[in-house]
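Supplementary Note 2. Why include the ligand at all?

Several targets in our set were suspected to adopt different conformations when bound, so apo predictions alone were not considered sufficient. For every target with a known small-molecule partner we therefore ran a joint prediction. The input for tryptophan is given below.
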Amino acid sequence: MRILSGIQPSGKLHLGNYFGMIKPATELQEQGEAFLFIANYHALTSVTDPVVLREATRDVALGYLACGIDPARAVLFRQSDVPEVTELTWLLSTVTPMGLLQRCHSYKDKTAKGIKPNHALFAYPVLMAADILAYQSNVVPVGRDQKQHVEVTRDIAVKFNEQYGEVFTIPEPEIRESVAVVPGVDGQKMSKSYNNYIELFGDEKETKKMVMRIVTDSKGLEDVKDPATCNVFALYRLFASPEEFSAMEERYRAGGYGYGDAKKALFEVMMDRLAPFRKKRDELAQDPAYVEELLKKGAAKAREEARKTLAKAREAMGID
Ligand code: ADP
Ligand code: TRP
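The joint prediction is reproduced in token form.
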């Protein structure tokens, strides 16, 4: 089984990235060959400063490795080290209906927010389809926001296969419902674009500040509280053991336990569970040559696969 996913280096990694994508990928890497990459071509649709892009690219690489992606099992690489995907994007775009891209929520949301779209933003899902199809991926672990893009990929692959013969494996998204949408401090989806995120590797002071900003209802200390509708609880449950989870649930239902207490407990459990990742990241950051070497090795492997798929697609289309 081939597992594939990517993260754009367009800002700091946050809890949504970890629970929605990185953690499922660390579990899936035990079941098959995982291809994980840093989507720096995609990031060009929002990051225009080359210094920032390089730094964020390094950050995502360190993040994957620190959070448990095992380079002995998984293939880790930069998207741009496999330029075959850009050629494949063009081939795929010839079977991609305009309407399919016009219906994409993420494109519509961005334009609705006033972002002036360029062609890359519009064509973004076709590049994502090329990422997935180039490696004949079976499973794509992502958060719910990316589900539609994987469906677009499936549509493109089916259309191509119908027209030119069986070239591509049809992938399945893998979305863990319990973590499909990790809430941000304002209760909306946690996202780099909403400024409501808690960083995975942020410093302690900043992390505490963000935890204290989590929006709650206005119930007083003595009131009975509902864990099911509370943003603090929603984040707490991601980190807590089953025992800690039940104990917190009881405290909410019993009353006499304030949101300030819950935030403090969340901050503590978060720092505790993230500590090994932070330590690993600090160690890896000391050895950029090692990380670069891994990325190069990963790219060579990924490229070999992408070349094979591209050759098949070209031949099927009569470009050979
Ligand atoms: P952002 O929305 O912050 O820009 P990305 O689009 O770079 O995040 O997401 C990278 C991966 O992390 C994707 O698989 C995405 O689905 C997942 N992800 C991002 N935010 C969340 C969230 N709040 N909950 C669950 N998964 C998320
Ligand atoms: N679009 C994805 C995101 O913003 C990143 C991405 C690019 C990706 N190519 C991919 C994810 C292929 C999964 C598979 O999160």
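The first strand starts at residue 2 and ends at 7. Residues 204-282 form a domain with the Tyrosyl-Transfer RNA Synthetase fold (CATH 1.10.240.10). Comparable summaries for the other entries are listed in the accompanying table.
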